[in-house]
Amino acid sequence: MSKDISTPFENVSVDYVADTDTTETETSAPATPAAVTPLEERGNEQYRQSAAVHEIVGAPRRERYARERQEREQDRAQRIAAAGGGDVATALRGEVGEAVLDMLRLDRIAESARKLEHRVTEERREAHAAMQLAARVEHLDSVLADGWTAAESKAKVPAILTPHLEFVDAKSASENS
Known about the structure:
The protein has 177 residues and is mainly α. It contains four helices and two strands; from the N terminus they run ββαααα. Helix 3 runs antiparallel to helix 4 (161-176).
C-alpha cells in the first residue's frame, strides 16, 4: 500500500507496511497529513528566499577561498619543484639501507630542512610586515611634513588623514590581489 505524504518541502511517496506483531494491541489509525496554513507557507517561502540570498552572498567568499587554496597549492608545488622534487626520502630498505640510514641520519637532515624552511618563511613574513610598516610611516611623515610646512607659512593646511588612509587602503588592496 502506498500513501502520499504532503510536506511543505516536497511530495513524498511512502510504502506503508502493516505491523504483523500481535503482541501489542494498537488502536491508532495512520496519521493523516495536516494541511499547510498560509502562515506556514509564507515562512517556508521566507526560508527559501533566505537560503537563496545566503547562496548568492557566500559565493564570492567561497570562490576567493578556492582561489587562495589553489594558489597555495601551486606555490607549494613550485617550491617543491625548485628544491629538486619531493621531500628527502628517509625510507631505505634492507640491511644496507639500515646501515646507510644509521650513518647518514637522513631523518635528521629532513627534519632540519623542514625547520629551516619554516624559519625562512617566518623571517620573510616579518620582513614584509616591517617593510609595510616603514612605507606607511614614511608616507605619514611626508603628509605631516607638508601640513607642518603649510601651517608655518600660514597657508591652508592640506588634508592629512584622508590621503594617508587612501594610501594605506591602496597598499592593502594591491597586496591582497
